[in-house]
């Protein structure tokens, strides 16, 4: 018994000469794409920069799912039921590692037992840099800057006591050469999990590698005129970018995104900005503009915004490039005007 054509397919079939395409080929033409998508493995990614690299390599095969979406931070994220279901059903899961997405460590043990769980901070060829603390760099903060406010009151560094960050800074993707290393590990994993689409993954990976090479040269040229000008950051997340392009960071200050620091802390920050000769102070999208104004008030420093985890960007294969260009452009704009 013949299956009835849908309205759209029937209309198109009438427009195509009978001899142009065999009748049996018509369903194959229209359903091949959907069959391929259905056959694609369920891939789950933790954060937007990782999702972007995986999306670029999976183009034409499928779309990976993203856990930390929107403006959420991996430092403070709470797993949703939909996230838990995705982890349970996944064939492959990509994350940076417990040093960044600590909220995933236990769920991956419980829910991702049937998946290939890939910790990208283990990718061969990565450059890994230790956290900077002491001197001009205040204790590294993962969203709990209130602890530093308490430390300022009694002279003791509670944040240093309570946070064990591991041996290295986990913002690895902020060096395009690290992105290349991660992409290689992603490709190897996808080819092993889905050999039917190996050629597509490998071709996409080659194209991505070429784009990353070009991006690296572009970023170096963008920041070259201002790389000797010192700046301060609210979140010491950029040292991979700094290390790659020879940028001069003066230090970091730790403040809560939601709370205006007290008068004593403000005076302390102003002294630090002056002593370090900072040309710019860079905050992130979650910081209130009023807070930024208070921090730089009475100093010669300008303010700018950097977005290391792509909180303001739409997820997708192009996000990584938009993210990196945005950091370079913001640095150039602020440091050039100061």
Provide an overview of this structure.
- The chain is α/β, with parallel strands linked by helices and 338 residues long.
- It folds into two domains: 38-126 and 173-215, Rossmann fold (3-Layer(aba) Sandwich); 146-172 and 226-337, Nitrogenase molybdenum iron protein domain (Rossmann fold, 3-Layer(aba) Sandwich).
- It contains 13 helices and eight strands.
- The strands form two sheets. A four-stranded parallel β-sheet has the order 2-1-3-4, sandwiched between helices. It has a four-stranded parallel β-sheet with strand order 6-5-7-8, sandwiched between helices.
- Helix 5 (105-111) links the parallel strand 3 and strand 4.
- Helix 9 runs parallel beside helix 13 (319-337).
- Residues 1-38 and 143-165 have low confidence and may be disordered.
- Belongs to the bacterial solute-binding protein 9 family.
- Keywords: Disulfide bond, Ion transport, Metal-binding, Periplasm, Signal, Transport, Zinc, Zinc transport.
- It comes from Rhizobium esperanzae.
- It is found in: Periplasm.
- Its main location: periplasm.
């Amino acid at each position: 018994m013949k299956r009835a054509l849908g309205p759209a397919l029937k209309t198109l079939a009438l427009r195509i000469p009978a001899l142009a395409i065999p009748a049996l080929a018509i369903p194959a033409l229209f359903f091949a794409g959907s069959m391929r998508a259905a056959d694609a493995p369920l891939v789950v990614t933790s954060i937007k920069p990782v999702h972007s690299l995986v999306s670029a390599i999976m183009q034409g095969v499928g779309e990976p799912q993203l856990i930390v979406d929107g403006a959420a931070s991996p430092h403070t994220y709470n797993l949703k039921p939909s996230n838990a279901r995705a982890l349970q059903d996944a064939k492959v899961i990509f994350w940076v590692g417990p040093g960044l997405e600590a909220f995933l460590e236990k769920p991956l043990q419980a829910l991702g037992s049937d998946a290939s769980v890939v910790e990208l901070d283990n990718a061969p060829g990565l450059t890994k840099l230790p956290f900077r603390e002491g001197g001009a760099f205040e204790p590294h903060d993962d969203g709990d800057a209130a602890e530093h406010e308490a430390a300022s009151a009694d002279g003791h560094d509670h944040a240093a006591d309570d946070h064990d960050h591991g041996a290295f800074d986990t913002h690895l993707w902020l060096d395009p050469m690290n992105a290349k290393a991660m992409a290689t590990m992603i490709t190897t994993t996808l080819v092993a999990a889905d050999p039917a689409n190996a050629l597509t993954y490998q071709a996409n990976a080659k194209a991505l590698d070429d784009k990353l090479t070009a991006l690296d040269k572009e970023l170096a040229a963008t920041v070259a005129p201002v790389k000797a000008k010192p700046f301060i950051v609210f979140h010491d997340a950029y040292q991979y970018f700094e290390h790659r392009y020879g940028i001069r960071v003066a230090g970091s200050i730790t403040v809560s995104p939601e709370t205006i620091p007290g008068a004593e802390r403000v005076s302390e920050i102003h002294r630090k900005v002056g002593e370090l000769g900072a040309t710019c102070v860079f905050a992130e999208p979650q910081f209130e503009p009023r807070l930024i104004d208070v921090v730089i008030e009475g100093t010669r420093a300008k303010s700018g915004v950097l977005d290391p985890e792509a909180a303001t960007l739409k997820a997708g294969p192009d996000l990584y490039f938009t993210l990196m260009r945005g950091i370079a452009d913001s640095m150039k704009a602020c440091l050039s005007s100061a």
